[in-house]
Automatic annotation (TrEMBL):
Its EC number is 2.4.-.-. SUPFAM superfamilies: Nucleotide-diphospho-sugar transferases. It holds the Pfam family Glycos_transf_2. It comes from Levilactobacillus lanxiensis. Residues 11-149 form the Glycosyltransferase 2-like domain. This is Glycosyltransferase family 2 protein.
Length: 350
């Protein structure tokens, strides 16, 4: 592989209050990138892009310090906290303007960064999507393992094509990035979108490591919200389930009325206080749940039709790190044209 054929790599690392882990994470990623450059697997101007998702600690200051120490480090600062998915989309959209390959990985490096060279090798072999998949969840609690397996089972039953035990550790080539940027959901469920794009994909397996410092940014509340996003983004099955449940309850009510009439003609007195109150409470609760689920879909439609930006970039040190005559990823003229249109739209939104 000649120098002109080498791909440019961007490693996108979303960060939210990651001050405790960045001093450990940055040198590890820098060493891996340096080795990739030395082995002539990627270009010398490849970058590590830290995306600060509105951190409240010194995360951005550390990113800025790293940039002054090593030209491979760059940063993207969002105007506020938009969430993990938005931070990933911001990093990938920014990196796609110059990079041929983009790897996303969490800042805590629980996902094995030593797998990165193998990902690049697989991309050279012709795969456009390389998933990092956990084959050992022994570091997770029983509750987290059980709920995760339950989530994948439910999503499979709903017809959503997910990669079990895959988080956000993956490599995407430039054509996949361009296709991904065409998805304009305000709250995208990236793990569900990428398999639907249909590009050649493969998996690499690894054992998830314990978090080296700091605390998890995904407590139970956020995990439940993430699971709900995945279900509501790809399936109307909950609404259909409400229809089936409603028809079932109506059928049961009709049977109950028939039974009451029979008892009335037989002269049996039915007090019915407990059964009536229980029925009222059950039906009232069911109606509230049904309205809430339908309201979630209506609310998401309301959010999408406003076409507000998914994120706002306050500071970008990645793009200026390249000269004005940087090399566009040379996939095809159509891809280059579409990327140019994406830049124009992004400028209008900003």
């Amino acid at each position: 592989m000649t120098l002109k054929q080498l791909p440019r790599l961007a490693i996108v690392v979303p960060c939210y209050n990651e001050e405790p882990v960045l001093p450990t994470t940055a040198p590890i990623l820098a060493d891996i990138l340096t080795q990739l450059i030395h082995d002539r697997l990627v270009t010398a101007d490849s970058r590590i892009l830290f995306v600060d998702d509105g951190s409240r600690d010194r995360t951005w200051q550390l990113i800025d310090q790293l940039r002054t120490q090593n030209s491979h480090f760059t940063g993207l600062k969002l105007s506020r906290n938009y969430g993990q998915e938005a931070a990933l989309m911001a990093g990938m959209e920014t990196a796609a303007r110059q990079a041929d390959y983009v790897i996303t990985i969490d800042a805590d490096l629980q996902d094995d960064p030593t797998l990165i060279p193998a990902m690049v090798t697989q991309a050279h072999a012709g795969y456009d999507v390389i998933y990092g998949v956990r084959n050992d969840r022994s570091t997770d609690s029983w509750f987290k393992r059980t709920t995760a397996n339950g989530f994948y089972w439910v999503m499979g039953k709903l017809g959503v094509n997910l990669i079990p035990n895959h988080s956000d550790f993956r490599l995407l080539t430039h054509p996949v990035l361009v296709a991904l940027m065409r998805c304009h959901e305000t709250r995208p469920f990236i793990r569900g979108i990428i398999p639907q794009l249909g590009f050649p994909a493969t998996k690499l397996y690894y054992k998830r490591q314990p978090r080296q410092a700091g605390v998890s940014k995904y407590p139970l509340r956020k995990m439940l919200r993430f699971a709900l996003d995945g279900i509501l983004s790809f399936s109307v099955a909950p609404i259909r389930a409400l229809l089936v449940a409603g028809l079932t309850i109506c059928g049961g009510a009709l049977l109950m009325i028939l039974w009451i009439l029979i008892q009335h003609f037989r002269g049996t007195v039915v007090t019915g206080w407990s059964s009536i109150m229980a029925s009222l409470w059950f039906l009232g609760g069911f109606q509230l749940v049904a309205i809430s689920i339908i309201g979630e879909y209506v609310g998401r439609t309301f959010t999408e039709v406003k076409h507000r930006p998914r994120f706002i970039i306050q500071t970008d040190t990645y793009t200026p790190s390249f000269t004005a005559a940087y090399r566009e990823p040379s996939n095809s003229a159509a891809v280059t044209l579409h990327l140019s249109q994406l830049r124009t739209k992004s400028g209008e939104r900003s």
